Amino acid sequence: MVTIAVASESADEPRIAVSPDTIKKFAALGAKVRVQSGAGLRSRISDEAYKAAGAEVVSRADALAAADVLLAVRRPSAEDVKALKPGAIVAAMLDPYSDRDGIDALAATGASVFSMEFMPRTTRAQSMDVLSSQANLAGYKAVVDGAAMFGQALPMMMTPAGTVPAAKAFIMGVGVAGLQAIATARRMGAQVTATDVRPATKEQVQSLGAKFVAVEDEEFKQAQTATGYAKPMSPEYQAKQAELVAQHIKNQDLVITTALIPGRPAPKLISRAMVESMKPGAVIVDLAAERGGNCELTEPGKTIETPNGVKIFAPLNLAGTIAVNASSLYAKNLLAFLDIMFDKKEKTLAVNWDDDLIKGTLVAKDGAVVHPNLQSKT
Ligand SMILES: NC(=O)c1ccc[n+]([C@@H]2O[C@H](COP(=O)([O-])OP(=O)(O)OC[C@H]3O[C@@H](n4cnc5c(N)ncnc54)[C@H](O)[C@@H]3O)[C@@H](O)[C@H]2O)c1
What are the pLDDT digits (tens) for 197-241? Predict the structure, then answer.
């Protein structure tokens, strides 16, 4: 029988890689899950709930010992991976572009290591797309937390005592997180505008009832790569964009920034001068903080207040602050991914190394780093 290990995550990671629901489904595939005692508590999953679903709840060492598969949220240590069966499968969000020595150490264990962030954004892979499942929750939570920090009402309210104006929300970057931020801000009654450099986003923004604000020149028309991501924009475009943002941002109450380009530092879209032009009480939630942030003043992991009274909130793991939902969706993503590795008749692992989803996510195998995006050491 295939054994799947799940160990507790680090102190700053409340999410967990399996849920009672996925444990039952793994059993149907022919796999037994061993969970470290207490590993689910920060996602409100008790040891009893795991046991009731059929998992073995054991010590960390017993969970890892000679397991065929290790499922994790964050990159596991090489030490933990060495405890597994030689050549075991490891799947996690490796944050593959950071700490290259750590990736090399994982590769050296000989395990087959998969980075869930590299999942191709194809229709077949949708159920395994951890970036989407987590970004969607982060986009929602950014608006909820930002609204709480704003300390004023979001919707327009007409009352006998007078009218409260609608707050203005500006969403920068309209990927998965940005779209959810627009939808959430609209539901909460804000007047919403949004910007992106990919032309496809214009219609998406408008279909959510928000106004699209962008520099729509020739470069904008070509800004999307074949894989659906944004290209880095030229200095000329950036200058035009900065002018537009400077005009727009000074009237905004809540700004949510989500702009990213894979494998690169986050583009700086909000300068110090722009922040200084904003109203006291305005809030910026910088979801790109993990990649350095979209705002020049962002301090990743912190909330700061500028001398002119603008709060800049730069969370590093916003999905983790709603760990119950984030773990449930992440666990389902991993189940869907593991599902393609099983021989359903024999109830054993039978990985097709030529499958595009396997190839797309495989970072290390047989002792070597194999992913094309990680071939040049930086
Ligand atoms: N299965 C699927 O088909 C599937 C699933 C999810 C996402 N996608 C697509 O993948 C792509 C990436 O989505 P994501 O949420 O991971 O994006 P992301 O997190 O990489 O980036 C967020 C947004 O920032 C924007 N951006 C980058 N540079 C910018 C700049 N200088 N100014 C303004 N905006 C900037 C990007 O265009 C993107 O919309 C999108 O095309 C999305 O539709 C496809």
Answer: 999 999 999 999 999 999 999 999 999 998 889 999 999 999 999
Beta-sheet pairing, 112-115 with 362-365: antiparallel
pLDDT tens per residue across span 47-64: 999 999 999 999 999 999
> Facing residues of 230 across strands?
224
Alpha-carbon span 273 to 108, nearest angstrom: 47
Q: What is the dihedral of CA 125, 233, 135, 72, to 10 degrees?
A: 70
- Probe residue for ligand 1, chosen from 227, 229, 333 as the CB with the greatest number of ligand atoms within 8 Å: 229
Q: 176-187 vs 130-150: helix axis angle to the nearest 10?
A: 40
Angle at 265 between CA 15 and CA 317, to 5 degrees: 15
Q: Is 290 in the pocket of ligand 1 (CB under 6 A)?
A: no
CATH number of 2-118+323-368: 3.40.50.720
Give 365's pLDDT tier (boundaries 50, 70, 90): very high
Say yes or no: CB of residue 72 within 6 Å of ligand 1.
Answer: no
Determine the Cα–Cα distance for residues 121 and 170; give it in Å rounded to an integer: 26
Mean pLDDT of all residues belonging to the chain: 96
Helix (H) or strand (E) holding 204: helix 200-207
> Considering the domain 136-317, what is its CATH architecture?
3-Layer(aba) Sandwich (3.40)
Query: Is the confidence at residue 377, as pLDDT, over 80?
Result: no
Segments making up each domain of the chain, as ranges = 2-118+323-368, 136-317
- Tell me whether the CATH fold assigned to 2-118+323-368 matches the one assigned to 136-317: yes
